[in-house]
UniProtKB/TrEMBL annotation, chain B:
<dbReference type="Pfam" id="PF01979">
    <property type="entry name" value="Amidohydro_1"/>
</dbReference>
<dbReference type="InterPro" id="IPR032466">
    <property type="entry name" value="Metal_Hydrolase"/>
</dbReference>
<dbReference type="InterPro" id="IPR051781">
    <property type="entry name" value="Metallo-dep_Hydrolase"/>
</dbReference>
<dbReference type="InterPro" id="IPR011059">
    <property type="entry name" value="Metal-dep_hydrolase_composite"/>
</dbReference>
<feature type="signal peptide">
    <location>
        <begin position="1"/>
        <end position="21"/>
    </location>
</feature>
<keyword id="KW-0732">Signal</keyword>
<feature type="domain" description="Amidohydrolase-related">
    <location>
        <begin position="314"/>
        <end position="405"/>
    </location>
</feature>
<protein>
    <submittedName>
        <fullName>Amidohydrolase family protein</fullName>
    </submittedName>
</protein>
<dbReference type="InterPro" id="IPR006680">
    <property type="entry name" value="Amidohydro-rel"/>
</dbReference>
Amino acid sequence: MAKNKSFTSLKVSNKSINTNLSLTCMIKRQNTLMYLVLMFCLLFINPAFAQSDHSGQRRITGTYAITNATVFTQPGKSISSATIILKDGLIKAVGNDLNIPIDAQVIKGDSLFVYAGFIDVASEAGVSKPEDVKRSDDMDPSDPSNEVAGITPEREVLQYWDINNGEITNWRKAGFSIAQLVPKGEMLPGQTALVVYGDKESTNILAESTGLYAQFETARGVYPGTILGLMAKWRELYKNAQLKYEHASLFKEKGNGINRPEKDPSLEAFYKVINGQIPVVFEAEDELEIRRVLRLKKELGFDVVITGVKEGSKLAEDIKGADAKIVLSLDLPDDKASKAKMEDATEEAKKAHERVVAAYKEALSEAASFEAAGIPFAFSSKGAKNGDVFKNIQTMIENGLSEEGALAALTTNPANMLGISSYTGTVEKGKLANLVLTTDSLFSKDAKIKYVMADGYLFEYEASKSKKKNENVEDVVGKWNYTSETPGGTSKGTITFAQESGNLKGEILVDDPDGSGQVTRQLENVHYDGKELSYTFSIIVQGQEIVVNTKGTLSGNEFEGNLSIKDMGTFPFTATKEPDFNL
Amino acid sequence: MKKFTYIMLSIVLFGAKSLYAQTPKGDVLIQNATVLTVTQGTLEETDVLVEDGIIKKIGKDLSASGNIETIDATGKFLMPGIIDAHSHLALDVVNEASAPITAQVSMADVVNPFDVGIYRALAGGTTVAHGLHGSANAIGGQSITMKFRYGTSNPEDIFMKEAPRTIKFALGENPTRVHGRGKNIQPRTRMGVEAIIRNGFAEAQQYKKAWESYNSVKGKKNNTATPPTYDLRLQTLADILDGKIIIHCHSYRADEIYMLINVCRDFGVDKLVFTHVNEGFKVAPELAKYTMGASVFSDWWAYKFEVYYSTAYNAAILMENDVVTSINSDSDELIRHLYHEAAKTQRYGGLTDEQALSLITINPAKQLGIDEFVGSIEEGKQGDLVIFDHHPLSVYAVPQMTFIDGVKYFDINEDEDDQRIKVSPTEMVEPVYLKAEDERCMHGVELFMQEAAAFNHTH
């Protein structure tokens, strides 16, 4: 009886679920239908001969014409008022006075700048990390399986790649259309592959197994557990791969009387490296790591591309001697030094701080130093933020890198490095239709990416011209007298704003909370958009730092707003500008 | 025409020089010093001339050709550069604690020439140090003998290329704790340590044999032999058996010191040095007869159970029993004043000046197999020299200048507050400011030891 009862109740609940489902279905019916039709189209109808497109998803044409644009065909070479004709994923023609095909979608390139699509030599965009292998309870940590030890050179990165991943959208938006994907993992995570950031329905694969990826990373708690073990393991794996290759060749050649070579996918993955077909793509950030890579290279004799490089231009001669390729990280160090408050520091600390400032400056000029040393380098996005790319490249340019060199590092250098310059890297007839269209010349402060064409597919972006905030900076520059009502009474003082290369900076004179008189504090985060002015500063009250936020509206010589202090409240604030006496 | 030849010659020479990158070699004439040669007595008011990195002449009223720097050392003491047979300074990693035998790893891979500790060691007169693997494993990694040529960014410039290969072994509590108690694998006891080493050597013999038989038929007509698996660990152990590598073994107790002597005798290994050796005084005759010596602390013990039975007379007892004895630092701090450590043997054991100085010069040189190059002031040896204001065994002694290969790497009058050669672009306070001392024999083993917190010592 009890059983029956539970059955009945189950039935009832089932029914209600069904009801719910059918309701949802009715609502979603139309969408589902659309989806089915779309699937149908994709699966059974060859799009090239499709008479109609029920989904409305398919593009109308694969032919484009970009007209009247400034085209940088390659670093240092440009054509003005040029037209580019693109058809089905290829550049058909570049030049002036070209006939525009009748089926072309025309992109008016007036005021636009066109560059070859950027190439990323080490990207993790859309790559997921394989699941960790389960370690057996009786595993001997001194002799783990290759998989546990992070040694999986046989893995193909494409098995872990998803073109629909949002990271790809972001990197494409930053101008990249070709990337060498690197697998995630530890010491030898697997093999790299070359893809294009094209349409999500395509496979987008340009080449599989383009390099053997290696890192100075080890798995936890097993051999090899440190760089010490890693270096030894590298030597051992490589030598054994060579021996295995020798053995396998002998077996193939002779057969009779030769032991069967034991199958070892990890060692076999080295064969292409041993035969010089692919390089080792080795991530090495600093000088000592680069030297370790060069040491292994010298001992074992493989071709090498060193990625994620953040310093090492001082090793230029060694790098050239080893014929190693260099790929700089698009990530730059944080400017912690200039943020540090050193006013009250000791002389010794100040001197040490100066050295950090100098080291920071040197880190920013690494790209320039590599260029000066005559080493053609490319970039890698791994570990960098896509939103910082242009800011960081601009910083490299401010620190001595030529604009031509920067463009080469994004286009021609990686194309040469990857051996794909025959079909990409420049804007020339016959090359893949990979382009970046910007609103201003590429490395100028106001340049925004308006279009990216990848694999012949067009992606359009919001590119509202950045507000010319600098124009009105003059409104603010000068000396202001302020009054503020706080619980402690009325306080008065002055604020002085100045302009430094288009940016506002300033200082404020405030009552010293810990004594009598006034102290000067530097303003930080000063923003002015032509109307609203905001900034922060900090004061020390009984050893505690208190941050004061000020925000208000500027009209003429009046500034009215509020100042707010965390956990204390918001207080009215007004200031009046002292007239300039420019006679 | 002559000019042209000269230019061509200089191009050829310059080209050759850059091909075989040489470490700097200097010329210097140190005049009128009290020269503590260590091996040939004390020479009053004597000059030492170094040319192209080598001690050319020792004598009175020496003159040098025009360009050679001359230093007036009147009233000062000149001794050979101090040699530390046990250090972990300037190494990025110390322990590969993942296996009881890691003979395949090499400290040469992790030398960090930017470590400001090198400069501090130079300021204490130390010119050569033996960078060892830690003591987590029964057989640790291959060590690196370094000449502290501070200022280079290339680790290889710091390697002492003439030095023979060396390797770290470790007995007792550390390997049993890391592997036995930490990971529940062999060795869990002192017996296990012996078994690990014996098995390792036995395996290496088989390995060597397998390769020898393969190599003997390889390339011959109708050969069907296929190559054995390459094993860097066993290859290194085989090299020890072949006498190509000197063992430096971390040890405390007399019984296990004698154990390893016997193991080595069984396998025909005679290149063996013991380090720490706190109970060495109990087996001094055996150490004298069968080993290349003992490298000890002056007065450091009781930091764990196996190090309680110790005495500050250890160095003196060993020396009087003809053991080649040295005093080492095993510390980034002690390496800065090893002359104090040596001087303690005069308080505890009454060693002579020459005996005490030999503990930090010629004897460690012998233990590292580099005594034909360094360790004393003799004509033909490398110009590694230290000028002291007082006798180095005086408590008032302060090193004034330190030379390696005739090149001055430290001068107390040119000492800057900040001697770092590389600065982080982001770190406002580098660890170097926070901690001067860092003994690291057991550095990096925490990962393998859940109970590490219960053992708060480092050697």
